[in-house]
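EI: anyone free to look at a 258-residue chain?
SC: sure, send it
EI:
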Amino acid sequence: MGKVYIVGAGPGDPDLITLKAIKCIQQADVILYDRLVNKELLSYAKKGAELIYCGKLPHYHTMKQETIHHFLIRYAKSGKIVTRLKGGDPFVFGRGGEEAEALANHRIPFEIVPGITSGIAAAAYAGIPVTHRELSSSVAFVTGHLKDNQKEDEKWKSLANGMDTLAIYMGVGNLPYIKDQLIKNGKSKDTPVALVNWGTTDVQRTVTGTLENIIDIVKEKKIENPSMIIIGEVVRYREKIKWFEDALETKAKLCEAL
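SC: here you go
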């Protein structure tokens, strides 16, 4: 019997991966990796390791989740060391729990290796602290794939009134609905909003606005997935502490001067 490591690769910047995650890549006989995993990380794989792409695009799945489970189980049962490499953290909207459950059902040894999730990292690279002693003592990680029904209405009431900061994953396509539900359930239309596109990478872009005008800004700036949506008063800190994009701008100017 082999073993499976379900590993978080972090949010995009390859330097943000953990040492343990690198060790899992280095020792793996087989690596199953997702679309948002920085391909530089695959350079740590040993010679002869089998690399299998499992990436998913919005509305298009390269590999079904059940097929991924099948590969993990099959390779582990054949005695292989398998690393399942997932963007961000495997247990934050990464289906890592489903994969661990499938392995447990087949009594296959596995370990979970946490990674830095984009809800925190993309915000930090945009100069937005998701918590702050003066403005935010709570933060919620929310999937953007929310539906319009009575059960979801109760969730929106809690999100609009009970949380200081919302970090919304995979929500660009659903942004009009998200905005409407938050305002409908009591969130001020003047609440600051930021979208961080390709967070922590050299092509990171951030736009800011309010719940009232963010839709128009996103359309004008052509912001698409992958983007993190950060909603809350903490977004106001961005103009003062947007360290990463300032560094990118300085680097670009230096390159032009040379």
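EI: The radius of gyration is 20 Å.
SC: 👍
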